Amino acid sequence: MKRQRNKWLAAAVVAVVAITAIAAAWQSGLLRQVFGGEAVGVWAERAEEAQQQFQTSFWDEGRGLYNNAAPCMLQLCTDPFNYWWLAHAVDVLVDGYERSGDERYAEQLAKLYQGILDRNAGVFPNEYYDDMEWMALAWLRAYDATGEERYKEAALVLWEDIQTGWNDEMGGGIAWRKTQLDYKNTPANAPAVILAARLYQRFGSEDDLAWARRIYDWQKTNLVDPDTGLVWDGMNRMGDGSIDKDWKFTYGQGVYIGAGVELFRATDDASYLENARKTAANLHEAFTSPATGMLPSEGEGDGALFKGVLVRYVGELIVLDPEHESARKLAELLETNGDSLWEYGRGADSALFSNSWAQTPDEVVQLSTQLSGMMLLEQLARLEAQGGK
Which keywords does this Swiss-Prot/TrEMBL entry list (predicted)? Predict the structure, then answer.
């Protein structure tokens, strides 16, 4: 009898250990790797919580748009019309849909599509070439995720308009805006490379690949430091031909990294991947704090979105080869910033974020700030799902 009881006790201990291990695996996301996606990891849970907060705090059902801030003054809720912020809102909805498969994200994309059209006089093109590139990239991803033809058409209409921004001023490149055709910058060129390369990969037009290569070559020749890989912001802003080498922004690095990644995917030319890795390696010296590993705050407004753009394309670089030494370092960079954002950079009782991922948010949180934090969490959830974190 004593021996039988010992067997029962041993079995109970094994069961407890097994349950404890399963609980730990659930939290770490390991079950997803073992059992084919059944579990929800910790980063996925956080990303979903942030998405729910996003809907609750920013969505305006009547206008079909996300408000510029939470809370917002009534007359300023959607004024001014932050077109390019809303492009990134499309992107984070796609992130949520790809992560979860929840059809509510697809439904929300449809509402936002109509809301943007209604606010922009029934069309998607606008005055700024970089704005249109963000929007085209977002709707192309939405098409990939949902198969909705109207999203593909939006991306193609925008791409046709974007091509008109190329001219011979400053030796080529796409202009920043239609009324300043001689000012060329990274935000108007590197995202265009990503867009053209992705269009080629989806639909096979050699013309799109030629555009991607031509724009990339201009960007690399004119706005990338050949020694460090640091990406400069623009040239001829003041009409004097000078390069804004002091304007160093995280999103400029991100879109150039993304351009290299997409051209590598399109061509299998390793030089594009090497260039992307060079710029990514420079992040540690040029942008992160040596003491904490944190990316900098780049202020409010447009600047609050910059880090989110960076982490999106750093994520694209990581997933190409997660076992590469540089990928592991970049994954650690994202996780360091994600841990800090969740521990220190959100509200005490909310998933509203700060533009500094190491400090609690202000009473009013801008849409750009929220989107940036969400992009970080969604990238970490993506890496987690693939076994990277």
Answer: Hydrolase
